[in-house]
Amino acid sequence: MTYARMTVAYWCVLIAALLPFVCSWLAKHQDFGKPRSKGGFDNDEPRAWLGRQQGWKARADAAQANSFEALPFFIGAVIIAHQLGAPQTRLDILAVLFITLRIIYIAMYVAGLGTVRSAMWTLALLANLGIFLSAVRW
Description:
mainly alpha
């Protein structure tokens, strides 16, 4: 009997699934423990609290939303590439590249570097397309 194994690309799916939570933590962590009356994080109304944030905290929240948006295509691309027998080394390299670019994307988003952020988003999308197409036999 042959068992499937956890590949590097599958581990990258886990990392990608955790990235939105990292962004959420970035947006909120400085205000944990502060009283709500002094601008502290409001766990009773978290979306309203996040909606009032500005600057890097608001950008971290936006990076969270974008990270959730990028997740389905990445998961699908990795699963499809595995199912179709894509070369494992290529798939793993592209998955690590995707994660690396997404981490840089988040950092650039939080830092307010829009042009670099957009470039990282585009490169990550291209890496994801590479994953999806890596099993295609022309």
